[in-house]
Amino acid sequence: MYNMKMANKNTYHCNQSTFGIELFEPSDPFPLLYISQRALSDQRCFIEVYRIKTVYDDVTSEYKSFSVEKVQTVFLPAMKYENSLGNANCVIDPEDGFMYTYSRNNNTAEDNYKKCKISKFAIPDIHNEVVYLEDKDILSSFMIDCSALNMQGGCINDGILYIGQGFPAVGYVFLNVVDLANRALLARIDLQKYQVNWEPEGCFFFDNSVMLAHTDAINRISIR
Question: Does position 47 have pLDDT exceeding 50, yes or no?
Answer without folding.
Answer: yes
